[in-house]
Design a protein that fits this description.
globular; Rossmann fold; seven-stranded mixed sheet; 9 strands; alpha/beta; single chain; two-stranded antiparallel ribbon; binds S-adenosyl-L-homocysteine
Length: 219
Amino acid sequence: MITIKSTDWRAQRRRMVRKHLQRRGVTNRRILAAMGSVPREAFVPTVVRRRAYADGPLPIGNGQTISQPYMVALMTEETGITRKSRVLEIGTGSGYQTAVLARIALHVWTKERVSQLLAEATDRLRKLGITNVSFMHGDGALGYPSCAPFDAIVVTAAAPFPPPPLLEQLSCDGRLVIPIGDLAAQHLMIYQRTNSGFTARAVTPCRFVPLISPQAFDV
Ligand code: SAH
């Protein structure tokens, strides 16, 4: 008989960090430590739990997905955040990326439009003892002006263009990390605020569910 021990998850997590992150060039110690400690198996539905550490996205209900581990690491790396950073995340989903950001930054504000996903994510992070996160329900394309500016804004759903409120809510040097494109083709983009405006840089092709915002665009 095979017994599944809790240490198996830890072994799988270590392997994921080595194989899917370090071997692909993720070197940031704090990101590797965060992803080596957040239990991804607690963020996915029971039916797909045995694939929690596989190299791909997984369904989390309501037609949404938890991103591939490498993409979570890459997006976190591109934010350039430190332990002093104030971060806004749009698209809480399962709360996995939220937990990774929270292990690194000072505080994370996360906004989700599907209330059921938000409630489940809130519960998961509470159970993990992660307390430096504020949860908001609503349209993330509008950002969260009352706590702006943010050192980084991470959007985990794809938009046709960067929503102007999110650009406006960046601090000087702050970065917006966001997939831009449609269902057929998207690129992970980084917009950085400078003294005189914004710079834009494409990082990699990617595939995310759409950012749904009747107020910001017709999707
Ligand atoms: N980062 C998540 C994955 C999110 S999938 C994780 O680690 O699990 C994208 C999420 O964006 C979905 O939960 C979807 O409901 C949410 N979303 C889509 N449009 C949104 C909007 N306008 N405002 C807030 N959340 C939105």
